[in-house]
Amino acid sequence: MAPLQVDPSKIPLSLASCSIGLPRHNLHSKLEAISQAGLQGIELSFPDLQSHANELVRLGQLKPSSGKGDEVAEDDWPALCEAAKHIKHLCDTHNKLKIIVLQPFGNFEGWPKGSEERRKVWEKADGWVKIMESCGCDMLQVGSTDTPSSKGIPSDKKQLASDLAGLADMLAPKGFRIAYENWCWATHAPTWKDVWEVVQLADRDNIGLCLDTFQSAGGEWGDPTTQSGRIEREGLSESSLQASWRDSLRELSRTVPAEKIYFLQVSDAYHVQPPLAANPEPNDDSGLRPRGRWSHDYRPLPYDGGYLPIADFVRAVLETGFRGWFSVEVFDGQFDKKYGDDLMKYAEKAKASNAKLVKEAAAMESLRSNNGVPNPVTGSQPVVQFHRAPLSGSPPPALLHPLEYPAVMSSSASGWLYSQGFKNPSGGSPSDLRAALRSATTPANTGEEAEVPDTRVERFLSMTWKAWPCAATSGMALP
């Protein structure tokens, strides 16, 4: 397959406010550098909002309203909203920078009903919605919770999804959205596949994904606790790890629709030497798991000292058809040494490195170049012999509307294929099935006005493999 035709200059670029500068740099200087470097947006980090509010207090332009002293507290919603309005004004004066998202809203989902923690996170959510209204931002980033299971966080993704659905319902009347991100040290949803499952279970139009190059490459391929910097466990060779990583990317490119990716965060990671301890050091009071510690201080810009296969991940995202916001989010403990007070130099490098990354990803070999759909369980090619006869009957809804029929509901789709003669688990190529499916999804067969796009066919196929063993052995009837 030919390289993707992607113009990096046509992809909108943002920079997280928490990723530029040091504590001595105020938000105004950060916005100035971001704007002058030619970026179009920012992620507004809550700590930067609170810091800006306190700067306004020192300048005599704002008074805390909580009665807790001269500092603006993290729950002083009136003062924080006033600061948010001021930030919007600053963004407007700096080439109308867009605040694409308010972040990071963490440890939200899963708290037991009736618990004090649950009451507080919902109260916090209400306050953050007020801030979003004040700064003109329509998207809230929610990170997958890393609260330990010992505190009552369930492993049942349906319960996590229920909380997200409730939050989405709170945001919907205002036209706001949730971008759900996998944090690679999270308790129950550390991978893109986990958060995508939760998003599908939540089943709300205003919930999508925040994908992240570090969170996926650092969670599925990298490991800060090993000498090699890669995941190492008994029986896992380097080639097997690479195959597993590529299978994951291929599945992402086939199953996640572009419209459900709300934005992509970009960063790399340092190969930590000596490796981080598997358990926190005695003087480490952060309580973070190793990948959490890695994330907080060892994430540079692309091409600035990192080693993760992040271009692979960008390639997968581009193959979904996504061309929305890319956002640089880094946490580089070497920022002062590398850039000091030259925020403009850093912002320009962020823009240039992102363009280089997009070009590298676009030029890579396609994840679909093997003309096959990988078996998501084994990573091998599917072992199903296909016939060449035209398909009969109407395709199942899972093919026509894959977003409404996640993988957990795809057994009926497999049953339909079984009834068409795709039965024998004895080798073969999926190309015949692809051709047959495309033939079956013409307007004459579906009743739709246009042909079903190939992306739907690919999502359908990816879902189907997961349920295939059930269909192939039970002879499920045509639904």
Automatic annotation (TrEMBL):
Q: Which domain of life is it from?
A: Eukaryota
| Matching Pfam families | AP_endonuc_2
UniProt domain Xylose isomerase-like TIM barrel: residue ranges: 31-341
Check the record and name the Gene3D superfamilies matching this protein: Divalent-metal-dependent TIM barrel enzymes
Q: What is this protein called?
A: Xylose isomerase-like TIM barrel domain-containing protein
Native organism: Cytospora chrysosperma
